[in-house]
Amino acid sequence: MQHSADGQPDGTATVQFPRPGFLASVFRELNTDQGQGLDPDAAGPGPAAPGTSGDVMPDDGASGGDVSDDGTSGGAASGDGPAEPEESIAAHGRAAALTHHRTLTVQAEHDRLADLLRRAALPVSAMDFESQLRHYEPRPYPADGPETGSEAEPRWADFAPAGPATADPDGAPARRLLDSGYQRELAQARLAHQRSLREWRTRRAEAGNPAADESRRVHEAAEEARARAVREYNESLEECRRAYRLSEPAAVESLLERALAAAETATQDLPAPCRAVFRPLTRTAVLDLDLPPLDLVPSLTGYRLAPDGDIVPVPRPPADRATDYLRLVARLALRALQAADAVDTDEILAGVVLNGWLREPGAAEPLCLVSVDADRDALARTRLLPPATPYEERDDEGVYADAEQDEALVRLRQLGAAVTPDPYGRVGVQPAAQAGAAVPAAPDLSANEFAQLVRDLLTRGGLAEWSVRLRGPAGLVATGEGAPGSALPGRWVVWASRGATPVSAEEIATLAEAVQEESAERGLRLTTGRFADEALDLTGEESHRHIHLVDGDGVSELARTHLGLPLAAGR
Predict the structure, then answer these.
(1) Residue 107: partners with Cβ closer than 8 Å, 6 or more residues away
(2) How wide is the angle at C-alpha 116 spanned by C-alphas 115 and 118, nearest 5°?
């Protein structure tokens, strides 16, 4: 009710709506049309006059209470509907973020592999005997100064400044003392003389101090111990060097393994230990390199989000993954070969055999994935890649390159290396030689070892100007010429082989033809096995008496005579 100015009601009523959209909700609950009026009794207490503010008008929608065609409100009741679209969008966003995170993880694995490839190709520092020598530099006693016994007391004459210059040489000396510059120099000289005199007296006092004498004796004893340790270490190193020059296996193996361990400092986070065995019979080092696990190379390029919302891994092509693993293996193999070549400054080694072994947990035996048989000349030509050359990024390859274009693999194959075509298929290769006993059997020798053994035996027997014409895993064909009066005078054609199959008469006839083609005087057929009876009968004929035969027992006897070492000719 409204009231007049004197406080009495004037008979009119005012309807106040609680909130926007209130009437629409009431209509919906009562199932009434929005165009129908309200019951007069529901309008409030007391009648309302027509045309006054008490008339109830339909809601025009200005207050936000719009009603849709199906009778539902589009305002405050919007939260009553289903929320599936919002939840679907949120789930899709979470899946996309997880896909991106997993892809970044895979990219980090690719970056680590690229960094390992770069560091594995860094040049190797030589670890020869000269670089391992230690040098002793004495450290002076902290309170040391000139010997106080022979040191004279500081004299003022040694510190006094020269007199001031004057324009009048005949002037009185007192006038010279009034010069301000001279007075400043005189004061500084007196301070310097007093400081020197005080230090001299302190040194004289400390010379007779028992604590100072004991401190000096401790310092001198420590310096003497340091000098003795350096001297003893250098003497032991020199003893190792003498043993190394005598080709003692322990000394050579120790030097090689120190060099191989030093070469691993650039990739300490990639364990690739390498062990060395030295064979004095052939002056060859056999290195066993443990290769990194296969899962070091990423198998995925990333992840993608499928239309149904699943996170799907994107695998790499198997050939690309195998190529990346072989690129890393090639760099590790070249680094080990380079370390062995760099440390051999006295040229004790005639060659190096390297076998790369994959040792997997649960496997019965390790698998050889790479094997190299390199002689000294080949090692001299082998160098690691510069750190910047093989990593030029390409639009389609990134830090990776094709196996045929990778320089490390190319150089490894130029050494005659046997490399597995599929490391992930566990396809192994035949090791060039096994790191077994220091005096192996003939079948255990590598091709270069066997060639070096034959050359050493015959050159020490008097055959010079050695020239290899053909060489393979089973043997070699070479020519040589001995000086007149030696054990092997004249020009020779040598055919040496190893194997259990007896040498036939046809091979003797072939050697006789080669002697004639080379204009040689004699032929030598050497084998670690034996000769067939037909071959022995053929060399007994007049036409083949210029062909000489050496069987397995003869090879062992030559090794014992000329090399001072036995050889197990066969099994």
Answers:
(1) 302
(2) 65
In 3D space, the residue among 267, 276, 424, 296 whose CA is nearest the CA of residue 341 turns out to be 276
In 111-132, which positions are buried (b, 16+ CB within 10 angstroms) versus exposed (e)? eebbebbbbbbbebebbbbeee
Q: Are 336 and 354 in contact (CB under 8 A)?
A: yes
φ, ψ at 549 (rounded to 5°): -120, 140
- Residue 289: which H helix or E strand, with range? strand 284-290
pLDDT tens string 200-230? 877 776 666 676 677 778 888 888 998 899 8
User: Ramachandran region of residue 236, left (φ > 0), alpha (ψ -120 to 50) or beta?
Assistant: alpha
Q: How far is CA 469 from CA 455, 480, 495, 521, in A?
A: 13, 11, 10, 17
**For residues 487, 493, 494 and 500, what is the CA-based torsion angle, rounded to 10 degrees?**
-130
Greater pLDDT, 185 or 397 = 185
284-290 vs 351-358, strand pairing mode:
parallel
Distance CA 96, CA 99 (A): 5
pTM: 0.66
d(CA 106, CA 304) in angstroms, rounded, equals 12
Count the neighbouring beta carbons within 10 Å of the beta carbon of residue 391.
16
Cα end-to-end span (Å), the chain: 127
What angle separates helix 84-120 from helix 318-343, to the nearest 10 degrees? 30
Distances (CA, A) of 4 to 9, 31, 53: 6, 40, 16
